Amino acid sequence: MRRFCIYIVLVFNLLSLSSLGQSTLQWISIDSIEKNGFYRNHGVNKEKRTVGVIFHNPTQTEKEFYIRLNNPHLNEIDVIGPKGDTLYHTGDRHPFDSRPVRFWDFVFPIRIAAGQTDSIQFSIEHFGERLNYFFESYSKDEFLQRRDLNVFLTGSFIAVYLMLSLGFFFLGIYRREAKNIYFSLFIIITGNWIINDQGVFFEYLWPNDTNLQDKFGTYFNTSSTGLLFFLIYFLEVFKEKVGSVARNTIYVLSGFVIGRSILVLVIPDLIEEVSLKSTLLQISSLLMLICSLILMSSLYKFIIKKEYIIEALGFALFFGFTIRIILRQQGIDFFSIPKFDNFLFAVVQVLTVMIFTISNVLAYRRSKRLQYEKNLVEAEQREREISKRIIDAQEYERTNIGKNLHDQLGGLLATMKIRLQMLKNKKMSPEGKEVDDVLRIVDRSSEEMYNIVDDLVLPEMNGKGLQEILKNRIEIISTNTGIVIDLHILEKNIPDDVSIKIYRIICELLNNSIKHSGCDRISINISSKEKEMLIHYSDNGVGFNKSSIRERHGLKNIESRVEFLKGSIDLETRPGNTSYRITIPI
């Protein structure tokens, strides 16, 4: 990286030297200007430049040319007539009213008498800064039309930028995101710089105070405060994803920008210190060039990895155009269309802002979608918790009812049986047969009561597996009903809480078969496949009408328990075969 920076410095110095030694006087005809315009870029400049224009009017009437220099920040401009007299003396170091035409660019009406040929010289000075200009020539009507179009475009631009800036500012407050507030400030400052680059804002704000114009133009422009906020926004977007080299480069450049702004504040006459101003500009340009190249390499890595693609394109556009500006300061132009260069910077800035607007809109929609998905997951979680509480409450109530039946009614039945037995043993009478009938009824009641208790009260696992507790239950049912029940379980390591829920599901299915199907054979198969547990249950009963299935309370309980386990249930029924296929994720 150190060697890379040394190469950059050497190339930059060569570029600086290449911009020196250019001719200070050039002549061009008005016909050439009218046809193609006349563009020159002298880079960072320390001497006056003079352009001579030869005007020719072959007509029989006086002709007026409107010569426009598309650079509103030229320090001094003297327009010298053919007799050496000064026709106009203006520049951005002079009050705004010194301009012959009230417009942000410098526009000079030149009158040439009928059938005359005259030469006019334009002496231009912009010491310590980049000097570039583009001559155009219009008739008065053509100029007025272009001026109206520029005013409309500029007004539209101000309105759009103001809306975008306020939008990002309030979005940052609403979402509590500092990066959007930083970006809104960048939009405001960049928009102001674009407007000021057109010579509109500060000149109109303080038309007679050139010192204020210059200071505010220095503070509130893209290469100082705007760049600072843009770099902060860069760090906010990528956070810890950029390397230490890029991060330290940003810190150094930000420190220099702040130091330069302070220097402008403490040196009131910096405007006149050509050497110091030129040196600061060259250092700033060099740092910005190094920073832009390093950050562009970081952005290339993001694009290769397909991360932050939209944001990376926005930053690449901005830093790529920054490199172009830096090279123009050294007198080197590429991708230059002088006629539209005034608008090119504005277009690039608008595109940059629009790219990040799209990025933020997509990020906002992505955030809303993630929030919706999060809320959905939380709602499902709450629903599961509610279902669990309902099931736990049902189990609690069933257990309580079962224990009460066992402890109270069971005790009473047992006592009744003992008393009847004692009565029978003490006094045998003709009524003994009736006592035997009562004893049988008591025995039957006790048996039914214990069946109900067994159905209500959950079995104690105590290390038992699902197969063992189901087998005990099936033996009781088979003994009491005569139904043949085949049980096959291939899954051995089923968690106790899942085993209990599957136990309840099987019990509900068994109850339905016993009460409604009239079957004499039931088959139960439990197995696992990949990340799913499969339960296949079938009986050879009479079947039932599927349209009435929802009315059966037992089926509702089954569906509720399967749904709680995030499973699914498929039912097929016809006379001679009713089968359930239950899938439960593990």
Topology overview:
Layout: H1 2-18, E1 25-29, H2 30-36, E2 38-44, E3 49-56, E4 63-69, E5 76-80, E6 86-90, E7 106-112, E8 117-125, E9 130-138, H3 140-175, H4 178-197, H5 201-205, H6 210-219, H7 222-238, H8 244-266, H9 274-304, H10 309-329, H11 341-426, H12 432-456, H13 466-481, E10 484-489, H14 496-517, E11 521-529, E12 532-539, H15 553-564, E13 568-574, E14 577-585
Parallel strand pairs: 1-3, 10-11
Antiparallel strand pairs: 2-9, 3-8, 4-7, 4-9, 5-6, 5-8, 11-12, 12-14, 13-14
Helix pairs in contact: 3-4, 4-7, 4-11, 7-8, 8-9, 9-10, 10-11, 11-12, 13-14, 14-15
Shape: rod-shaped
What's the Cα radius of gyration? 46 Å
Distance between the termini: 53 Å
Overall pLDDT score: 76
Helix content: 55-70%
Strand content is: 15-25%
Largest beta sheet: strand ordering:
1-3-8-5-6
Count, helices? 15
**Could you say which structural class the secondary elements and strand pairing correspond to?**
alpha+beta
Order of helices and strands: HEHEEEEEEEEHHHHHHHHHHHEHEEHEE
How many DSSP E strands? 14
How would a crystallographer describe the biggest sheet? 5 strands, mixed
Low-confidence stretches: 1-23
Summarize the structure.
The chain is α+β, with helices and mostly antiparallel strands.
Task: Please explain how this structure is put together.
Helix 3 packs antiparallel against helix 4, helix 4 (178-197) packs antiparallel against helix 7 and helix 11 (341-426) packs antiparallel against helix 12. This protein has helices at 2-18, 30-36, 140-175, 178-197, 201-205, 210-219, 222-238, 244-266, 274-304, 309-329, 341-426, 432-456, 466-481, 496-517, 553-564, and strands at 25-29, 38-44, 49-56, 63-69, 76-80, 86-90, 106-112, 117-125, 130-138, 484-489, 521-529, 532-539, 568-574, 577-585. With 586 residues, the protein is α+β, with helices and mostly antiparallel strands. The model is unreliable at 1-23 (pLDDT under 50). It contains 15 helices and 14 strands. The protein is rod-shaped, with a radius of gyration of 46 Å. It has a five-stranded mixed beta sheet. The protein has a five-stranded mixed beta sheet with strand order 10-11-12-14-13, with helices on one face. Strand 10, helix 14 (496-517) and strand 11 (521-529) form a beta-alpha-beta unit.
